[in-house]
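Final report, closing paragraph on structural work. Over the funding period we assembled a curated collection of sequence-structure pairs, and we close with a single example.
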Amino acid sequence: MIFLSFFRIFVHLPNQTKQIKKMKTPTNQISKASLFFLILFALPSVLEAQQMLPSVKVLNGQGRMIDISTIQSQGKPVLMIFWKLSDMASCKNLETIFQTVNDSLKDENVKIVAICTDDAHSTLQVKPWLMAKEMEVELYFDTNGELRRAMGVNPPFTFLFDKNMKVFCKQSGYCSGNESILCSKIRDCINQIGEESSD
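Its predicted structure, as stored:
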C-alpha cells in the first residue's frame, strides 16, 4: 500500500512540475543568484549557530603560528573570508566584501579576517597585494589546507561569527551582487549582540 502511494506521487510529479513552470513570474521577482545567496547565507540553521572554530594551527600576518580558535571578536561581528590570491575572482570577492563593509558599516567596527589558502610559495605576494589595495584585514595563512578541510570549505567561502565566535551564518561562493543581503545579516548580528549585552 505504501509502495502504491509512493508510485502515484512519483508518476504525478512531472505533471506538477510542468504546472509550476507555467506559473507567471512577478516582474519584481528576486534573481536566481540572489535567491540562492539568500537561502545559503541569510537563513542560519540551528547547527550553524552551534559551530565554532576548530583548534587548528595557522600562520598569522607576522609569520607566527597560532591556534585559529584563539581569535577574539572584541564584542563585534567577525567576517571570515577564505580566499586565494591565485584566483582573480576570489580576490575580487574579498575586495567587494571589504569595500561593502567599509562603506556601509564603517561605524560598526566589523572585524574582517582573511584566510589565504594559497600554497607557501605565494605567501610573500599576499601582503603587498593587500597594501596596494589599501585593505586592512586580519590576515592568516592556511598553506597546508588543514583549516579549510577542518571546516569543510573551499574558497571563496564566507563565515559571519557573533561575539562568542559562533557561526551566525555562512555563504559558499561569491558575495558580489548580494551586498545588501550581506549588510542585512551583519546588522542582524549586531542587533543580536546588542540585545544580549542589554540582558
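The longest strand covers residues 78-83. The radius of gyration is 20 Å. We thank the funder for supporting this effort.
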